Amino acid sequence: MDNAQTGMQARVNVKCPWLAILPLMLGSFVGMFSETSLNIALPQLMKALQVGQSSIQWLVTGYMLVIGIVLPLSSLLTKWFATKKLVLFGLGAFIVGSLISGFGVNFPMVLIGRMIQGIGTGLILPLMFTIAMLIFPPNKLGTVNGVLALVIMFAPAIGPTLTGLILAAGSWRDIFFTFVVFLVIAFVIGLFSLKNVSQITKPKVDFVSIILSIFVFSGLIAGASFASEMGWLSVPVLACLIVGVIALIFYVRRQLKLEVPVLNMRVFRHRNFTLGAILVMVDFGIILSAMYLLPQYLQNGLLVAVALTGIIMLPGGVINAVTSAFAGRMYDSFGAKWPARIGFIIAFVIHIDT
Known about the structure:
This protein is mainly alpha-helical and about 350 residues long. It contains 14 helices and no strands. One of its GO terms (cellular component) is plasma membrane. Its main location: membrane.
């Protein structure tokens, strides 16, 4: 009876949990939307900013690099700062970055704006799931995570289509101004609906771990980015990857020794968590890489118009988003094993067929 009662109660009581999580859902939506929408706009940005393919790619790579640096620090930040302040800061950073990119007069200015946007996404994305775990009861988390996944997947679904329409009617600057509209709405809602749900303990900050994490993500992401232009066996790529891997080894060892780690690596001792993390990484890697490469191929290889490229990308994204919502309910009813197996079998068969 006690266990059943525990499953029905959230760790932190919030009067309207869906309203409390709404600003983070909007922020996460824009974070994913901004990544896939720019994939469509890259050819136009190359012409407008007068840069090549390798340089324009940094609008995506730089954004992901900052996310990779900030995201592991989110757990530490929640122990030092109130939840509401962190969320509003993340949304505010995204708004400022979007305005800088939107008004950018050259490539460095647009890139700086994109990297500031990465700060916002790096904070908002993990906080959305962390706060959801606290304000919703455990027996509803499958459904809740399904809805949150729907939000994340719906952004890539409509991103190319909406971007194609924006570019057909206006300019690439309007993409960034579209971000601002959604983010301002999220910021205003957050001012009134957000509640501080994390416990502020202010643990000791291990700056060595922070520096190592910067080297890890900078090395790995920069190496993978340079590989598309220089090749995997080139000296700069190998140097970046080696630095990233060595820093990762020292980072993991340090987290396992610290009493209060910046990122708790001990959870990987649990087999189910490790397996789930690997599967999610593979799944998102396949999805996001396809969403980056396919628009480039359609526009540059097949010379398909921007608006039509967005329409071609729409059906698969919509199905992905809708399936995410049902997957959450399936988890509540059947657990994770069979839905995950069915999903990977379908993905495998489709990719083999194509």
